[in-house]
Amino acid sequence: MDPLPLAMELMRCPSVTPQDAGAQKVLAAVLESLGFTCTHLPFEGDGGDPVDNLYARIGSGGPFLCFAGHTDVVPPGDAAAWCVPPFAPEVREGFLYGRGAEDMKAAIACMVAAVASIRD
User: Fold this and answer.
1) Residues in contact with 12: Cβ distance below 8 Å, sequence separation at least 6, in sequence order
2) CATH of region 3-119
3) What are the boundaries of each domain within the chain?
4) Per residue in 64-116, pLDDT tens?
């Protein structure tokens, strides 16, 4: 599995905390296609807006492998200061640009690609 298309699809979701904007739905669909069971777990611990968490599990026994990440991003600030629109990712000269490229939507896509390669 090439992680780039998934990274770009996640980056198109304007998931500024606490809004998910569909990012976890995208991620759950891919994980479910790999055989995972996905559960959404709301977290309301700080008295603010609830934040949805995605828990994905496959199998019932060890050994265990755990990945942790987040699909939310901080506000992009002034969109004019970006070389690409923050939620319209682009690859330029081999580099991925857009909100979430570094923290951490691209990393999540790489985690999923790693799991997909183990499953193959």
Assistant:
1) 87, 88, 89
2) 3.40.630.10
3) 3-119
4) 888 999 999 999 999 999 999 999 999 999 999 999 999 999 999 999 999 99
